[in-house]
Task: inverse folding
């Protein structure tokens, strides 16, 4: 175990098993609730920390590291995405950065299939209609959606989550195409009967485009007005990756003008804000960043982050370091 003098800071309230593990590693500071700390509060909280468990809404950069001070050795981000972390600034200061891959793959893929069904079968729209106490009755052409069998699912970013989405979509009879920086293992392509396409080809062919890439300078606004223009008019867009991968204002215009059929979004460009142009549209599903939000998954994520802190502070290699 770690030296008792270690100070460990968690920037939000995390599940008990993870907090207990951290307590065994040193003195733990954790806020009473799960709200996001303000920048000043965050800096004050991490002063003198050896290890920090951070959330995706915490900005982890040089100023953060300077506020923490020279003892800081590890920042464990409780998310698979780490676009909130300036990794070079941490590495320069000898601080290890870790993330939480793997444990949230199923939850995020499940949520993505939820988005897929919600938008293609108009579930949000139907729910709104009933809750608005609108009159309705079953008839043969009432609220028709789009079927999935033999449709093409285009997955952008074919890592663990993208592949888990493909595996599930195969059960719905969908054909899988993907675009990614690197082709995946031929065994995976064969298992999923997935074809690698250029992004342009994928946008032109897919009936549903689902985003599973990390947010980087290359992927910011990957789906902009031009990309939306390249999609089929009957196509749907799903985003459970990071909001800024999509130009939200351009998407609102494309949806309003019927340039594409619909979109389902779990993430937003300026969370928790949502582009006002999207809020009154029927052909968009909006849910508040719920990809990994199950009790089981969030506990696993917090535990993995805690294990990373414990490992580094006891001189062991991190379990899931960011490269
Ligand atoms: C992540 O892990 O990056 C998600 O956005 C939160 O689970």
Result:
């Amino acid at each position: 175990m770690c030296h008792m003098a270690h100070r460990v800071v968690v920037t939000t309230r995390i599940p008990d098993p993870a907090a207990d593990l951290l307590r065994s590693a040193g003195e733990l500071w954790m806020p009473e609730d799960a709200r996001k700390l303000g920048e000043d509060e965050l800096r004050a909280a991490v002063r003198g920390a050896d290890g920090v468990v951070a959330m995706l809404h915490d900005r982890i950069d040089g100023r953060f590291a300077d506020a923490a001070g020279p003892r800081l050795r590890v920042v464990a981000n409780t998310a698979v995405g780490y676009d909130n972390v300036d990794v070079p600034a941490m590495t320069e200061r000898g601080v290890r950065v870790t993330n939480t891959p793997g444990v949230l793959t199923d939850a995020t893929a499940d949520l993505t299939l939820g988005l897929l069904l919600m938008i293609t079968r108009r579930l949000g729209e139907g729910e709104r209609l009933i809750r608005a106490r609108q009159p309705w009755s079953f008839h043969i052409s009432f609220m028709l959606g789009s079927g999935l069998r033999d449709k093409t699912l285009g997955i952008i970013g074919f890592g663990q989550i993208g592949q888990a989405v493909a595996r599930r979509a195969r059960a719905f009879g969908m054909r899988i195409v993907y675009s990614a920086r690197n082709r995946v293992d031929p065994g995976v392509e064969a298992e999923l009967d997935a074809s690698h396409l250029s992004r342009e080809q994928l946008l032109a062919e897919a009936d549903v485009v689902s985003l599973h890439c990390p947010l980087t300078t290359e992927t910011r606004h990957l789906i902009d007005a031009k990309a939306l223009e390249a999609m089929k008019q009957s196509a749907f867009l799903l985003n459970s990756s990071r909001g800024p991968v999509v130009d939200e204002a351009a998407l609102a215009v494309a949806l309003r003008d019927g340039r594409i059929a619909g979109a389902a979004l779990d993430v937003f460009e300026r969370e928790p804000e949502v582009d006002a142009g999207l809020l009154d549209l029927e052909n968009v599903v909006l849910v508040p960043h719920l990809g990994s939000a199950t009790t089981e998954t969030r506990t696993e994520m917090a535990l993995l982050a805690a294990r990373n802190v414990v490992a580094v502070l006891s001189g062991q290699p991190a379990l899931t370091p960011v490269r």
